[in-house]
């Protein structure tokens, strides 16, 4: 039997961090003199830092500010590293999939100490075969490269993979990589938006996905 891969986004999918990102990006922009509405930031969470800044400030911004904005966000967000809250049953879901024969991979724009903090929150390292982080790719989501790299790490073809995420950027990345996409609502993005971006199934959160495994796209290893 060829291996099957369950690829997971992390922020907003397994760990309840999206609104922490919104608040800390809002403050980073405010400190730099930019008035960016929180709802716009929320819709941009899931992009890598440079892409998020470009999406919100436009291509005519002073790009020399990008590194300072990103560093400010990182410093503000780092205050929460010791208490990032995993979403209900996130770790149980990954361990169950591992037990069921899935190869579990993370594909995230986080890296370094932030990624370590997220993995501590999930507390399921024994079930995670590999992680594709922002440091490993040239282009982040919605480009397919993060998902493609995650699959390369474990040697699983796209047709044997499912990607779970909470943003339209996740769904577009997964669709472009040729994998089946599953959306979760716990990141705060509406069901219709996820479905339009490529989600073939949508669940409330990891707990809902876990309880629905027998009937869902992650329900068997055949």
From TrEMBL:
UniProt protein name: Haloacid dehalogenase
GO molecular function: phosphoglycolate phosphatase activity
InterPro entries to which the protein is assigned, alphabetical: HAD-like_hydrolase_sf, HAD-like_sf, HAD-SF_hydro_IA, HAD_sf, PGP-like_dom2
Biological processes, Gene Ontology terms: DNA repair
Lineage: Bacteria, Bacillati, Actinomycetota, Actinomycetes, Kitasatosporales
Gene3D superfamilies named in the record: HAD superfamily/HAD-like, Putative phosphatase, domain 2
Signal peptide stretch: none
GO cellular component: cytosol
Record Pfam families: Hydrolase
Organism: Streptomyces spiralis
SUPFAM superfamilies linked: HAD-like
């Amino acid at each position: 039997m060829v291996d099957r891969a369950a690829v997971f986004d992390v922020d907003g999918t397994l760990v309840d961090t999206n609104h922490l990102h919104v608040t800390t990006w809002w403050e980073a922009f405010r400190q730099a003199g930019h008035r960016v509405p929180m709802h716009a930031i929320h819709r941009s969470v899931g992009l890598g830092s440079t892409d998020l800044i470009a999406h919100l400030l436009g291509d005519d911004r002073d790009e020399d500010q990008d590194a300072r904005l990103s560093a400010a966000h990182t410093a503000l967000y780092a205050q929460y590293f010791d208490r990032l809250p995993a979403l209900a049953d996130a770790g149980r879901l990954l361990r169950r999939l591992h037990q069921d024969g899935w190869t579990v991979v993370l594909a995230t724009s986080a890296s370094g100490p932030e990624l370590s903090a997220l993995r501590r929150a999930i507390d399921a390292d024994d079930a995670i075969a590999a992680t594709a982080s922002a440091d490993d790719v040239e282009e982040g989501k919605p480009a397919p490269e993060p998902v493609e790299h995650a699959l390369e790490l474990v040697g699983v073809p796209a047709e044997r993979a499912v990607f779970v995420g909470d943003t339209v950027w996740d769904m577009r990345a997964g669709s472009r990589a040729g994998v089946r996409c599953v959306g979760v609502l716990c990141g705060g993005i509406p069901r219709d938006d996820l479905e339009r971006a490529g989600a073939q199934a949508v669940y409330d959160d990891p707990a809902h996905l876990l309880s629905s495994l027998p009937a869902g796209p992650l329900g068997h290893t055949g």
